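Fold Annotation — chain and its backbone
Next Lines — sequence and tokenised fold

***
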Amino acid sequence: MKDLRQRKNIRLQEYDYSQPGRYFITICTKERIFLFGDIANYTMFFREYGKIAAVELINISSHYDNVKIDKFVIMPNHVHMIINLSEFTGVKNVGAPLAAPDDTDIDNKINNNVKNTTTEAGRASAPPTIGNIVRGYKSGVSRNIGFNIWQRNYHDHIIRNEKSYKEIYKYIENNPIQWELDCHNPENPKYHDWRDE
């Protein structure tokens, strides 16, 4: 058993991931397969799975009163987002939109990072952690697609100041136009395989 490789624990020990703050999250598809779409002319063109991933991401905020997605981008084989946790009040929103959005509505929400707010009120018993939120998101996407599409873990970065927040926000915004340099792009010589981390 000693010879079996142990996965690294990439979370900060003793850190409370339910406390208010802003978190930069990256989640990759299994084997970095291009499931969500393709980049052409510095623009992301979505496949059906990419639209599902985007809609589920837009809807994260509707499940908790204290969770907001400040910015996100869906790339061919990964997702970046900034999760903003505020003080937890115990109220969450549950339910689904009253009407399913059409493709134009989905595209507008994806392009404008607009969240869906048509929900019903409910109660939550404990503040969500970043791990809860990410697991719920991954599970929702996989359930809607029909199989697990995700790499086992995810990467997080605790955003500690406004300068870092602005840099990360801009990085997410510019991700499609910098795809050739992206460390998640297998065609980039600096590609970094994080599957075992």
The chain has one domain: 21-165. Residues 1-9, 93-101, 115-123 have pLDDT under 50 and may be disordered. The longest strand covers residues 21-28. The domain at 21-165 is CATH 3.30.70.1290 (Alpha-Beta Plaits).
